[in-house]
Specification:
This protein is mainly alpha-helical. The protein is about 35% helix and about 0% strand. Helix 2 packs across helix 8 (about 155-170) and helix 12 packs across helix 13 (about 300-310). Bound molecules: heme C (2 copies). One heme C binds near residues 59, 61, 63 and 119.
Length: about 325
């Protein structure tokens, strides 16, 4: 499927790629050691969808990060990798992932290039041995040529992760009703969503203290009192601190309508149930964030908040041919 456009990439190798973002977004951070080019992005795009990156040719990045679900795993609480093996965490959206200062639910990976090694080698995900993977891809002439055109040192595990990361940095979603409202279209949000917006940004709803900035996350790690006993302890194994048990990364809320079920373990089915969780103040938990307390929202206010969350959906993002299955 991918071979035709790979051949054409050699010509485009030097074309510069600028990640376009609207005025209410900061510029996309691009690491100095992984400059963007059109050919690198296109190579990363091909790799993202290529099942040959997995140990048994059955799973691609896109198998769990599906464009129609804003690059999450549509409807699945946890994902299935090679040979039907199941992981323990919910596949997060990759919407605006280039802005994240921490990756993974426990925030343990600092940048995309390092993160990509995780799924490639994780036995429950793509289960590839790096040496064998590079050898396998080197046997494909089109990949050899495409890598050589983009990277002076050709095909390597590092360059593979660089190309995929360059593609991921292009996954910008900025055309939801909320964005149009931000850009001055007073009619973009329904009356219900507008009421929900006010609750979201009020001390009563208190969502904005954690879900802030253009992507509705401050990338901090918090305990939202999801349960009393966390089987996945989140940040704690990294810091070895008891008070970090149950702390997980605040997720972006962009396209959240499309990315259920919710939370790190996919344990909450609907957006309404997530809002009810916050409204209740959550489970008894010693590490609960001080912001977790019963909110006293009425039934109507819960509905308003849900309507606002749905106004963060950007269908032009999920249907953008630059991000979908490569030709
Ligand atoms: C088998 C399903 C599966 C496959 C295949 C997969 N992922 Fe993921 N991805 C996940 C899950 C589950 C998580 C959350 C893991 C965690 O937090 O420990 C995740 C997390 C991520 C994150 C972190 C996002 C954030 O905001 O923290 C990125 C980026 C990512 N994946 C990119 C990729 C790339 C690139 C590939 C291909 C090389 C890939 N994934 C393959 C399931 C998958
Ligand atoms: C104390 C910080 C904090 C506050 C306050 C907060 N959130 Fe969250 N939110 C988080 C964290 C952390 C998670 C992930 C928790 C987990 O997976 O265990 C989350 C998850 C979510 C999710 C699920 C997203 C996904 O992709 O799974 C939604 C929806 C959400 N929050 C909406 C809200 C709304 C609406 C409010 C206000 C009523 C709110 N949040 C208040 C920190 C917070």
């Amino acid at each position: 499927m991918v071979l035709g456009s790979l051949a054409g990439m050699v010509l485009a190798a030097s074309a510069v790629y600028v990640v376009k973002v609207p005025d209410h977004f900061p510029p996309m951070p691009i690491p100095a050691d992984n400059a963007m080019s059109a050919a690198k992005v296109e190579l990363g795009h091909q790799l993202f969808y290529d099942k040959r990156l997995s140990g048994d040719n059955s799973v691609a990045c896109a198998s769990c990060h599906k464009p129609e679900f804003a690059f999450s795993d549509g409807g699945k609480a946890v994902s299935t990798g090679v040979k039907g093996r199941r992981g323990t965490r919910n596949a997060p959206t990759l919407t605006d992932v280039g802005y994240r200062s921490r990756l993974f639910w426990e925030g343990g990976s600092p940048r995309l290039e390092a993160q990509a090694v995780g799924p490639l080698t994780n036995p429950n995900e793509m289960d590839s041995d790096p040496t064998k993977l590079v050898a396998r891809l080197k046997a494909i002439p089109q990949y050899r040529a495409a890598f050589a055109a983009v990277f002076p040192d050709g095909l390597s595990m590092l360059n593979l992760t660089k190309a995929i990361s360059a593609f991921e940095r292009t996954l910008v979603s900025s055309n939801s009703p909320w964005d149009r409202y931000r850009e001055g279209d007073q009619t973009a949000l329904s009356v219900v969503a507008l009421r929900g917006m006010k609750i979201f940004f009020s001390e009563k709803g208190d969502c904005f203290h954690c879900h802030q900035g253009q992507d509705f996350t401050d990338d901090s790690l918090r305990n939202t009192a999801l349960t009393t006993v966390y089987s996945d302890t989140g940040l704690a194994p990294i810091t070895s601190k008891d008070q970090d048990v149950g702390k997980f990364k605040v997720p972006t809320l962009r396209n959240v309508e499309l990315t259920g079920p919710y939370m790190h373990d996919g344990s909450i089915k609907t957006l309404r149930d997530v809002v009810e969780h916050y409204n209740s103040g959550g489970a008894a938990n010693l590490n609960a964030d001080p912001l977790m307390r019963p909110l006293g929202l009425s039934e109507a206010e819960v509905n308003d908040l849900v309507a606002f969350l749905k106004a963060l959906t950007d269908h032009s993002f999920t249907q953008d041919p630059r991000f979908g299955l490569p030709k």
